[in-house]
Amino acid sequence: MGRMNVEEFRVSQKMPLIVVLDDVRSMYNVGSVFRTADAFRVEAIYLCGITAQPPHPEIHKTALGAEDTVAWKHFPTALDAVKTLKQQGYTVYSIEQCEGSTLLNKLLIPNSRQITANSQPSTVNSKYAIILGNEVKGVHQEVVDASDGCIEIPQFGTKHSLNVSTTAGIVIWEFAQRLLIP
């Protein structure tokens, strides 16, 4: 199927996106985010606060080895991660329903860096981070306040929340459509 091996993945060009998990409780959710991040060659995952870290059997159960391919780092808090990301020039978005949020389908992301199948970047000048929050409480308010903006996924049913791993998949896919060459 033409898939990369672990070493090829590690040295391949990545999508300029870091996923930040802010106190995510479920290790299955963490593993699912790792697996999605691998699928779209996300640059890294930042695990913050109580979010579990590999190696762990429950993370592995859903990550299926992606915890060994995707770069990750732990921060004491998501706010610490946001401060680091901003110092490194990332545009940081909290994925949260809040006043003034931008609907995901209306978000403008310039297609300023693209990766081809053979990992050759075109231009490189935009980097992004998305913050996904705790399954019950969401993204901490101080993290929302420190973000450059909030992204909200339009929803049309009676429920107005999605599982964090589902949310990650939707948002990562949206960034991938705009930042990667198919």
Could you walk me through the main structural features you see in this protein, from its secondary elements to its overall organization?
With 182 residues, the chain is α/β, with parallel strands linked by helices. The chain is built from six helices and seven strands, in the order H-E-H-E-H-E-H-E-E-E-H-E-H. Strands 3-2-1-6-4-7-5 form a seven-stranded parallel sheet, with helices on both faces. The two termini are 16 Å apart. About 7% of the residues have low confidence.
Q: How would you describe this structure in keywords?
A:
single chain; 182 residues; alpha/beta; seven-stranded parallel beta sheet; 6 helices; 7 strands
**Which radius of gyration do the C-alpha atoms yield?**
15 Å
The unreliable regions are 112-117, 119-124
Secondary structure tally, helices: 6
Q: What is the SS-derived class?
A: alpha/beta
| Helix fraction bin | 25-40%
Strand neighbour order, sheet with most strands: 3-2-1-6-4-7-5
Q: What's the pLDDT, averaged over the residues?
A: 92
Shape: globular
Order of helices and strands: HEHEHEHEEEHEH
| N→C terminal distance | 16 Å
The main sheet comes to: 7 strands, parallel
| Beta strand count | 7
DSSP strand (E) fraction?
Answer: 15-25%
Quick recap of the structure?
The chain has 182 residues and is α/β, with parallel strands linked by helices. It contains 6 helices and 7 strands; from the N terminus they run αβαβαβαβββαβα.
